[in-house]
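Quick one before lunch.
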Amino acid sequence: MTAPLLSHAIKSLTDKLKSLSEQPANDPIIQVSVTIAAIPLIAWLAAQSTYPRLYWKGRDTEEEVAAIGCCTDFFFGDDVDDIELSEKYLKQRELTSNPNIRYYGGVAFDRKNESWPEFGKARFILPRIELRRSATEYKLIVNLNISEASLEQEIASTLAAISLLDNPKPLTPLKKVALMGRNDTPSRARWDQLIKQVTEPGFNEHTPKVVLSRQTQLEVSESVDPWTLLACWQGRNATSFQFGFQFSPEKAFISCTPERLYHRKQRSLFTEALAGTTIRGLNQEQDKAFAQALLDDKKNTHENLLVRQQIVDELNPLSNHVDADELPTIFKLSHIQHLHRSIQAELKAQVNDFQVIQALHPTPAVGGLPKKSAIDFIRQEEGYLRGWYAGACGYFNLHESEFAVAIRSALIEPNRINLFAGAGIVAGSEPDIEWTELENKLATILSILTEL
Ligand SMILES: C=C(O[C@@H]1C=C(C(=O)O)C=C[C@H]1O)C(=O)O
Ligand SMILES: [Mg+2]
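Model of the ISJ complex:
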């Protein structure tokens, strides 16, 4: 049997929703779904006019999700602490035993500092409407939460959200942007000073790694559609996570990141150390030579080893056992290659996602070592607010959760694109080389946006 087209699917979803009032609900959170015919998710999302809009595609899975609207919105502003976050998380988890209910969102890089206003220190959404693809199966899903509203109210709100759905339109090709200006924070001169400070033996002795980053603001003559840009980016780095969160028309955060924070399946946890960078070669032979030089390089292998060490140390108290690759391998992207080590653990019973995030995030791949001293340095010296850049984005649910590290990311605003890139500064780091590494990390997105 072929899956019904969207309009038929919407009709049967509406019927299912209307009949909900005849059955008693087991859980306060109710999910209703129908199978639909194949549909391009990002094009569907770009055509919708409801906010928030979000998209998530895991790195090694055949699953992707586009979602709009809120059934429940957990927003944690500047005055929220980790204890409050964790309590809310646990309470919410108790509301459902359905493993298909997912909360999508993110946690800022620095939970003790100010963040971007609508994104907050953390924000998680149980969407009103989701479109999920699992391999070749597509589903239209709605979520209802009757813990705070009546079933009748929730059915009415969901039907109203469904009535606002728009049909997908093919994405129009992205036009190259006309660059009106570029502004880097920290500036090139300031970068040199910062690298000097961090590599100075007196500092390096107590803080062996700080991941310094830069915000590059591009002023553009025409606004760029974040979803079209994400779709193009996805085409260039298919082996990365791809995601985006847009809580209002004015701001969208998108990312095409290679880096996993963790993937949990029941109590099995998969994480990694991804750090150490070089460029791709122009041909296979040169590419291999760059990879080998990266594997042999002292500074880069040290950058990676510190991440491996810290992740293992953080996971040990939460786990029955932790296994980590002894030797790094190469992870290739369209313009750069990284050193990579896989790490696996079996979590102790009762360890929850929030504890895992608290322990791991931010890892020394984006923060530094020791965590506190590196983050303090970043907070005081970097000169801009990281917000969700280098934060943790993904989803959690009962049996499975997955979070990516939000690097290779951009905050899209009207007539402005903010790009972010960081580099691990350790003993032996040189300002010129690390600055060039930042440029290399932006090469893919810049090649999509500009004529470069
Ligand atoms: C911080 C970023 O990347 C991190 C830094 C790397 C490095 O310095 O070699 C490599 C991968 C990431 O761990 C970024 O891309 O913004
Ligand atoms: Mg590096």
